[in-house]
Amino acid sequence: METVIAGNVQGFKQQAGVLNIQIAHAEAKVFIYSPTIIRVSISKKHADTDGSFAVIRQPLADFDVDESAEFIKINTTALKLRISKSPLRFSFFTADGKPLSEDDARFGTTWQGERVITHRKLYADEKFIGLGEKTGNLNRRGTSYTNWNTDAVDYGPKSDPLYKTFPFFIGLHSGLTYGLFLDNTHKSYFDFGATTDDEMSWFGADGGDLNYYFFGAQGVAKIIEDYTWLTGRMEMPPLWSLGYQQCRWSYMSAKEVLKIAKTFRKKKIPADVVYCDIDYMEGFKIFTWNKKTFADPQGMMDQLKAMNFHLVTIVDPGIKIEEGYHQYDEGIANDYFAKYPDGENYTGYVWPGRCHFPDFFREDVREWWGAAFTSLTDVGVDGFWNDMNEPAAWGQNMPWIVKFGDKYMPEVRNAYGMQMARATYNSTKTILKNKRPFVLTRAAYAGTQRYSAVWTGDNMGTDEHMLLGQRLVNSLGITGMSFTGVDIGGFTSNPTPELMVRWNSLGVYTPMFRNHAIKGSKMREPWEWGAANEQIIKKDIEQRYRLLPYIYSGFYQSALNGLPISRTLAIEFPFEEKVYYERFQNQFMFGDNLLVAPVESDKMNTEVYLLKGDWYRLSTDEKLKGDKIVNVPSPLTDLPVFAKAGAIIPMQNIVQSTTEKGDGILQLHVWNGKEATEFMYYEDDGDSYDYENGAYYKRIIRFDPKHKIVRLLAVEGSFVSRFSKVKIVWHGFETQNKPITSIPFINDVIELKY
Ligand code: MIG
Question: How many A from CA of 387 to the centre of ligand 1?
Fold first, then answer.
């Protein structure tokens, strides 16, 4: 096999917002999307149409290009791109000339057949974070990864690849930050100096264009903001989906589903969601209900609704080959399935037996398939779970000659799950009219945050997996996926009672709080662990419900600027070494104000790295000095969680579900601190799209220690808060304020002196 190295520039021309550069074997195109985002696409042959599953923005119409003897030069207000001509190499600098990322001078971009790789210089102190759902350490330096969406059942703390593809990472060196998104759905590769004598990093794909977006904003949060500007942000999720979710493979009958829901209510353990895994269907046929065990779905749904429960049902891609089955007949009649090159429908075995697979890359197929959700929505289902969409079939090795749309499987495999989630989301959004659907998908590609939440697949019931899961969640957050969760308790094995309790307490601080277990495992519900453990689990779930006003405001931030809910400490402190220590790398900020330290179930004391500033243990108000490592008790009843000095955290009273209105009092918890702080409080009806037309309630809350005042600024938006009173709860103030009083939660400025 010949290796071709990108050679000298033979000519270049600029037209309508794109710079075209010719070399002997290929061409490069350069586009500018914003002062901090430059796109480079290098290809032996660019396609005529320039499509992307991920990107939702257009490049600028025009920009200036300069030339010198050695370079083609592009400057934005934030970035300098220097393209060397002999040979073609790309180097990015800050506006004041500091190197951010440079092609390896020797190799730049190379081809071996269709495989295309770009080699980059590795800086001595360079660290890498990102790539979404990838195992390993927070700092990915010295490791390598492959993107190839896989049904990774039995994955371990080092397995790769898993279910999802997010070819986006952030590089950190010399006090500088940059991001790089390789928008290519082929099997792709990222090597962060794994085996290159610390000389270079490299990335590329088995085919397609070496098409990347370079982000030059300074600050990790700003890069995430730019990345999610480019690829989109999540919409506000339905509030009910932020409550506690109880799942299992499977609750086998309507009777069992109802029994589970009733038990939550009887035991007064808050919950919002119960799931139906594959066994609710007739012979695993998608969009059917089992006639015996789920004989009266409407009756079941009515009872669930009366108990304020929502139901989420699973749908897999595989359509059973069976004449007389509606989806099969229509799919055949209209030619909606993925094909072999000779036009035959591809067949694979999954749960239903022999199956065909909808070609979700076609709009007509997405619409056809999506319209069938009425079989679920008609009875009142409003949550939809997409599984097996890597796509997976028994044997896990779909032939490479299967065709989706006008492309073969290897070219687009990594986007199949995303297209299924897109079909699910768009159609259920239409069907449910002005109600927000909840969509959860296992496979995903960059941009999936626009359609769906994700969970991290089939993990195990071990401490190691609990900590790994937290890293996966934190890392997914870097790549725009804010609504994420893991199977709490571990999917494929039984956790010890201690681990179940600990993991549940961590679930409180996970964007999606879902307990799920494999068929054949021990029952997993909160009351299955003995009376004492049940009380701890219940108390933790109650804590989740108390925090919902804070959590919902966090989701709003995410919808607004892409900042995740669970944030690795590297977002705020990318150059603080301790953040990357193995013993601290799982720590994260949950929203603006809470630092959470995940810890194994058998450790009753743990070391926590507190960032600079002062902190208060959430459970005790004990004050701790930051910028140091502290050893704190970590009993199963008290996960180490700390509020930042100056934290403003809105809470509510305990309710049994998000449908319950509660006592109408917003509890505003404020922790004393030396510096002024601000919190953006956000509320809306929690289940419609009216917020897009101004029906929200938003106000800034300021803590001003200099003037000893907490000020709630005037309200923005037309929504009437569901709280009628506000009660300030002071933490760590010397003169403990007069007894806590509730005052009217009016729309005008509210001032509270202390
Ligand atoms: O072949 O639907 O990851 O959450 O419970 C297994 C049954 C299929 C895999 C999912 C898991 C789900 C299970 N599914």
Answer: 7
Residue 314 alpha carbon, nearest atom of ligand 1: 2
**Ligand 1 centre distance from Cα of residue 256 (Å):** 19
Q: How far apart are CA 645 and CA 173, in angstroms?
A: 30
241-455, CATH topology level: TIM Barrel (3.20.20)
Q: Whose CA is nearest to atom 6 of ligand 1?
A: 388
Q: Of the candidates 740, 549, 742, 554, which has an alpha carbon nearest to the alpha carbon of residue 652?
A: 549
Q: Could you tell me if the CB of 145 is within 6 A of ligand 1?
A: no
From-to residues of CATH 2.60.40.1180 in the chain:
502-511+528-754
| Ligand 1 pocket residue status of 687, Cβ below 6 Å | no
Contact 595, 142 (CB under 8 A): no
For domain 3-231, give the CATH number: 2.60.40.1760
Which candidate, 289, 257, 253, places its Cα nearest to that of 271?
257
- HSE (CB half, 13 Å, CA atoms) of 526? 28
DSSP for 458-519, written as a single string: S--SSHHHHHHHHHHHHHHHHTT--SEE--BT-SSSPPPHHHHHHHHHHHTTSSSEEE---T
What one-character DSSP code corresponds to residue 428?
H
Secondary structure in 3-state letters for 344-383: CECCEEECCEEEECECCCCHHHHHHHHHCCHHHHCCCCCE
pLDDT, tens digit (0-9, with 9 covering 90-100), for 630-662:
999 999 999 999 999 999 999 999 999 999 999
Question: Which residues in the chain are classed under CATH 2.60.40.1760?
Answer: 3-231
Which amino acid is present at 255? K
**pLDDT at residue 588 is higher than 80:** yes
The finding on whether 277 has its CB within 6 A of some atom of ligand 1 is: yes
Q: Report the predicted TM-score, pTM, of the whole model to 2 decimal places.
A: 0.98
Q: Is 458 in the pocket of ligand 1 (CB under 6 A)?
A: yes
pLDDT digits (tens, 9 = 90+) for 91-131: 999 999 999 999 999 999 999 999 999 999 999 999 999 99
Residues annotated as catalytic are 387, 390, 458
**Residue percentage of the chain with pLDDT more than 70:** 99
Task: Evaluate if residue 744 carries a pLDDT over 80.
Answer: yes
Per-residue pLDDT at 739: 59
Q: How high is the pLDDT of residue 226?
A: 99
Q: Kindly state the tokens that stand for 677.
A: 């702080």
What CATH number matches the domain at 502-511+528-754, 2.60.40.1180, 2.40.50.140, 2.20.25.90, 3.40.50.300? Answer: 2.60.40.1180
Tens-place pLDDT, residues 281-308: 999 999 999 999 999 999 999 999 999 9
Quick check: 736 pLDDT over 90?
A: no
Residue 737 confidence (pLDDT): 56
Query: Start-end ranges of CATH 3.20.20.80 in the chain?
Result: 241-455
Mean pLDDT score, 596-610:
98
Residues recorded for the chain: 754
The protein residue whose alpha carbon is closest to atom 5 in ligand 1 is: 249
